[in-house]
Design goal:
With 226 residues, the protein is an alpha/beta fold. Helices cover 28% and strands 27% of the residues. Strand 11 (192-198) and strand 12 form a beta hairpin.
Length: 226
């Protein structure tokens, strides 16, 4: 039976290796937000009920069984403030990566930089895109202006950011920057792609106002729903 493995660590090569190891065993992963205090992590773990926590290698009783094909659980407070787990399957993750790769014309020659939390779908999606296309991947444990710009100078061509982070870097260092998380500022550089999505949609499914391939949009009470 598939298990849920909690990964309590920042973004790193080890994190990606552990994700791939869990997937090869048929298990799903739950990235833990490193900004949470111990009490917050305990609440999250109690609600999500993983079977194991890494790197402590703690095996927990009464772990939540997962369905075959489940790959990722992202914690989201939604509108209630209480943590809930949004489950994504290997199929949904692959579909999102394919659609993004098609729209951005991604290839193995690209180099992705992760500098936003991998406990959020926007950060984890960067990993998924790189794995799908075979692109190089650099991971930072947290956003840092100097480290981000150094990564770009060392070959990183693509990244995902939120607006506050975008305003702090030299955007011209990247070939393409996906921007999400909040309303986009005015007068964006041409290499910045605004994205709209939710944890439930697996991240951005609308780029620069246009739905990705195989994404349907409808307007309900004046709001776009995907």
């Amino acid at each position: 039976m598939a298990r849920l493995i909690a990964l309590d660590m920042p973004a790193s090569k080890t994190f990606v290796d552990l994700v791939q190891h869990a997937w090869s065993n048929g298990d799903a992963v739950l990235p833990i937000d490193q900004r949470l205090r111990p009490a917050g992590k305990k609440i999250l773990l109690d609600v999500m009920a993983p079977s194991e926590i890494i790197p402590t290698a703690s095996t927990l009783p009464n772990g939540r069984p997962m369905q075959d094909g489940d790959a990722l659980v992202i914690a989201s407070s939604g509108s209630t403030g209480s943590p809930k787990g949004i489950i994504h399957t290997h199929s949904s993750i692959l579909s999102g990566a394919k659609a993004s790769a098609s729209r951005l014309q991604l290839s193995a020659s690209d180099h992705w930089l992760v500098c936003i939390p991998v406990s959020h779908v926007g950060g984890f999606s960067v990993i998924a895109r790189a794995l799908h296309t075979g692109a190089a991947l650099t991971l930072l444990p947290a956003f840092d202006v100097a480290a981000v710009q150094e990564a770009a100078k060392n070959g990183a061509t693509h990244t995902s950011l939120v607006a506050t982070a975008l305003s702090r870097i030299d955007t011209s260092l990247f070939k393409s920057i996906l921007l999400g998380g909040s309303s986009a500022p005015d007068n964006l550089p041409s290499n910045v792609v605004t994205t709209y999505g939710m944890t439930e949609t697996g991240g951005g499914v609308v780029y620069n106002g246009e739905p990705l391939d195989n994404v349907e949009i409808k307007i309900v009470d004046g709001e776009r729903i995907s």
